[in-house]
Amino acid sequence: MRIQMRTEGGFAYIPGLSRPTILDSATLSPQESDEIQHLVSAVHFFDLPTLQEQTVHGGDQRTYKITIEDGVRSHSIQVTDPVKDPQLQALLTFVQQHASM
Amino acid sequence: MKLTTVQRYILPPHMLTALAQHGSPEQRAIALHMLGHDHSIRTVRMVQGLQVNHHHLSVQASINAEGALHRVIYDDHGTMDLPGECVRVEGQHAIGDVAANEAYDALGWTHALYLQVYGRNSINDAGQPLDASVHYGTQYNNAFWDGERMIFGDGDNQLFNRFTCAIDVIGHELTHGVTEDESHLAYVGQSGSLNESISDVFGSLVKQYSHQQTAEQADWLIGHGLFTDKIQGEALRSLKAPGTAYDDPLLGRDPQPAHMDHYMHTVEDNGGVHINSGIPNHVFYLVATRIGGFAWEKAGRIWYETLRDPGLRPTANFRMFARLTMANAERMFGSNSRELAAVHEAWTQVGVQIPAFAKEY
Ligand SMILES: [Zn+2]
């Protein structure tokens, strides 16, 4: 499984930091690999709408664009802070902590 | 109204607000104090040589309860559960948490600028409570306005320090609420860049007001102190010199343009709202320094009246906004005023052509 995430916008938006980060489950420990598989299936990632519900209000919220490829499946979504679904937030947090440029 | 009336009765916030704006110097000082602006009263005293009667201190708490200035600070304790635990409300003493106290103080200054200078009572001009959540998430490198509250991350301590450390960041976020209340400037493209710029402008004015700095004395930086010492940069943005705030091996170079020739066409960041805001930001700096003195008095007033102008549409672009700043400068200062000339010259300098007639847009 390969996850690509891109973070855009925010008060402290810096284009140089918005390059996509990649997480390849093959590079993770068996335990971490299990964890990411679990997070992806718990949130039913491949069934999520491409654009997550977001408020039209506010300013400086960051937007996350996430693409996951798993075998023949591939799906992309876009979600904006604050992320309402705790399971999607848990997935985001894991990717942020484990992905590299 | 006589001073004795103020002494005897607890006035509703709207009357205090009116007194704070239009009363005699003594009435203004007392009304401001009753509205809870402790630190700004020192400024008033300093500037106008006033003495504040300490008999009025006792009614302050009950006035605040009516909502003129009502700050509520929440602590997320590293989670993303909003709003978090309430840790400090209006009138309470400082607590043992730097971020919570910084948010509390900076919200006070932002409220003070809007009330004392522009006669605006909070975000909605009706005493809306100012809610802020600190310690949002872990290593969270952002601050934002979600439509109801201001939310501040602690930063990752690698690139960013805590987002409450700069007063203009808090003024910036609160101003998003004001803009949303007044104009609904769409958060995309040029209207989004204007929305961003208005937050930077008033964020910087809050800092200048709190330091009583003139346009010449101010640093015109946004987020000074936000970068850790590992980063080569003094701030996130500069109104004085867009494009020069940072230049770092990891972050790259501050991409903000100061002229339409360098406007960045991008789909990222809602069309570069945090990038192209450099152009209207620089216009404000030019206007303020050409006029001179305290930037909030004239340049800030022109921008504030433009923000409140019913002609400012949600889809306004730079040209439309420029035209409205001209119209408001003319209305307030006259068609032959140096203020109007300063506004016109500033937009011309950054390459924004101002339509001659309102019907052009
Ligand atoms: Zn903003």
From TrEMBL, chain A:
It comes from the Bacteria. InterPro entries: Emfourin. It holds the Pfam family Emfourin. This is Uncharacterized protein. It comes from Dictyobacter arantiisoli. The lineage of its organism: Bacteria, Bacillati, Chloroflexota, Ktedonobacteria, Ktedonobacterales.
TrEMBL record, chain B:
Its main location: secreted. Residues 183-352 form the Peptidase M4 C-terminal domain. GO terms for molecular function: metal ion binding; metalloendopeptidase activity. Its EC number is 3.4.24.-. It is an enzyme of class 3 (hydrolase). Keywords: Hydrolase, Metal-binding, Metalloprotease, Protease, Secreted, Zinc. Its cofactor is Zn(2+). It is found in: Secreted. The active site is at E173, H274. Residues 97-180 form the Peptidase M4 domain. Extracellular zinc metalloprotease. This is Neutral metalloproteinase. It comes from Dictyobacter arantiisoli.
